[in-house]
Amino acid sequence: MRAPRSDGEAISNAAKLRKAALLSADIPTAARWGEIGPLLAGGTVLSPRLHRRLFTEIAQAHGDPATFPDGARRLISMTAVERAKAALRAGLAYHLAAFCPAVDRPTLAELRAAYGEDAVAFALGHINLSAATPPLDLLSREASRIVEADGWSMLALLADEYRISAAWRSAGWRDMAEEGSASLLRSPALALAAAAVSEVALREGSGR
User: Fold this and answer.
1) Where are the domains of the chain?
2) Could you name the domain of life of the organism this protein comes from (predicted)?
3) What are the tens digits of pLDDT across the range 143-176?
4) Phi, psi torsion values for 46, nearest 5 degrees
5) Cα-based angle 77, 78, 81 (whole degrees, multiple of 5)
6) First-residue to last-residue Cα distance in the chain
7) How far apart are CA 59 and CA 21, in angstroms?
8) What's the burial of 159, exposed, middle or buried (CB within 10 Å: 0-12/13-18/19+)?
9) Contacts of residue 58, Cβ cutoff 8 Å, sequence gap at least 6
10) Over the stretch 12-64, which tens digit does the pLDDT of each residue have?
11) How far apart, in Å, are the Cα atoms of 186 and each of 89, 136, 190, 204?
């Protein structure tokens, strides 16, 4: 049986989560201090006091991420790079059947070259959730655009399922999701998004 975490560890984890959430928040629309958004995006170091004031303002209106359920905390604590990896995995798994009725060796090789070993391994591991979508030309730019945009849409669906306010989502995340398909099947989309977020978080260490 796992020993309960100490109060100190819990406080430290909550602080890390809140910092990650603030870095990905849509500050220009979520807080009165909209001019701070570009400063954070540009890597400007704000004082701890200013960080606390900014976080408190957003959290009071949109919820404290440290109190969210496990899945929501995992999603909101991911970096932009980690979130992009999860979106690619989810989108590829969802559209896997569109590339080939049966995934043969030549198709596998092309998929790995186009999307990477990790994304393909995830898609194959969740092939039962691949949706019956229109055929896609594996090597086309349009196929890549659809896979990635739908992956972001799936993460947005998951965030909605967790009731994460749009204030805690960067404008870039929202813009990517808006490019996705309007007809995603909710059940497999949510299952794939949750699985992709869990896998990336475990690999990258942000899901603890």
Assistant:
1) 4-67, 72-206
2) Bacteria
3) 999 999 999 999 999 999 999 998 888 877 878 8
4) -90, 155
5) 155
6) 17
7) 10
8) buried
9) 22, 25, 27, 30, 31, 167, 168
10) 888 888 888 888 888 777 777 666 666 666 666 667 787 788 888 888 889 89
11) 16, 21, 6, 27
